[in-house]
């Protein structure tokens, strides 16, 4: 039983590691922060790292690695074909998930590219608890239609539902009846559902979805990129797992799925990705594409050093002291913000603290991109880089009209084992100040809008001179302080 969540029964997360290597960060004066976000087209993706104080954009590829991961990198076997490193990694994955075959790929979206190419036929439906940006883009590229069948409760921002990432079983049955099983390319469960606030999926739900898919002969895919947060919640929020080893929970998930894929920039705290399956036919079809798009089968576009780090990182992902770190820090930040009346997604999930920009900026219509505006305002006020997860992250409809997002969120991600408690307190302090002056935040509009995944490279401008007004208010309240 894991009981080291918080110490003294207070809301203080306890770090179960010590820091042995550091990176210096800069806190620029607010005028420079405004200049920096202006040069970045008011898109936090385009900021330069040197201008950022706390980088809470993502946990992708920026997690702290352990000493054992670095040590393992030294033994990497750098051969083009048949590398020992590959076989070590293959063995670890087989042991964790119990699946027969492993295909390496350079990151999560490369896996999505490969399986979408093999499994998605034009006009077929991909049913999922909730889409992820790159997943949807790859399915759509092959002519597939993504259909979300998540619980309605998922869109209830302030909720006490422990598993808002669950698939709605009625919606699943209805979709099968409506489309017919031959028109469904697969059902996809995303662990730790990214775009709705890092909300987990229960084992109870995975079992039921798997039972239905097997009965109907529909393939079930599991996106394990955010698996570790999900495992933590399975253990903490599903009473039957209170005394179960994390490895046994993971094994059971493996037994329910036809295919598992992951971004190892997240899972395993390294860089890379992979696909696992026990389905020989699927494996053979996907295998052909790996040398074509990724690299030879024993490295798949990854550096062997990263593969060694991944093998160790995956094994460390079975340790509650390791995987509890992100959720307990997310919870601590969310609780502090909730206490101050600031709207965040609850219950706290994995991945990061998610601010509800619709409530935070309730004076802005969705067409003014409140999530993008709030992410900009947070950077100006604090040097903290968050990520827009709202309408800017959606693609336009075919007729060119805006596709308004179900939720307007700003994610303040916690790279695993990177930030300290005083840095969390800084986040609370600056977000609280901004909330007090939220009426100063104005809208954004595109000046350069890419057709695909526009949130990555799109450039915007503020509607009016609200960023300058924010700076003036800051100077009034904080004087010369940074
Ligand atoms: C749930 C999920 N799936 C897939 C991906 C894509 O992985 P990658 O960024 O390695 O391409 C991500 C990345 O953030 C993710 O969070």
Topology, please?
Elements (H helix, E strand, L loop, with lengths): L29 H10 L14 E2 L11 H7 L10 H14 L3 E5 L2 H12 L5 E4 L4 H9 L3 E4 L20 H11 L4 E7 L12 H14 L3 E4 L3 H11 L8 H11 L2 E5 L9 E5 L2 H8 L1 H5 L10 H13 L3 H4 L1 H15 L12 E5 H4 L9 H13 L1 E2 L1 E3 L19 E5 L7 H16 L7 E5 L5 H4 L1 E4 L3 H13 L4
The structure holds pyridoxal-5'-phosphate.
The site of pyridoxal-5'-phosphate has 16 residues, from helix 4 and helix 5.
Instruction: Specify the CATH class of the largest domain.
Output: Alpha Beta
By DSSP, the count of extended strands is: 14
Number of domains: 2
- Average pLDDT level: 96
Count of DSSP helices? Answer: 19
Beginning-to-end CA distance, first to last residue: 44 Å
Helix content: 40-55%
Q: What general form does the structure show?
A: globular
Q: In the CATH hierarchy, what is the superfamily of the largest domain?
A: Type I PLP-dependent aspartate aminotransferase-like (Major domain)
Query: In the CATH scheme, what's the topology name of the largest domain?
Result: Aspartate Aminotransferase, domain 2
What summary fits the major beta sheet? Answer: 7 strands, mixed
Q: What are the bound molecules?
A: pyridoxal-5'-phosphate
pLDDT under 50 segments (min length 5)?
A: none
Radius of gyration: 22 Å
By CATH, the architecture of the largest domain is named 3-Layer(aba) Sandwich
Largest beta sheet: strand ordering: 2-8-7-6-5-3-4
Strand content: 5-15%
> Pairing-aware structural class of the strands and helices?
alpha/beta
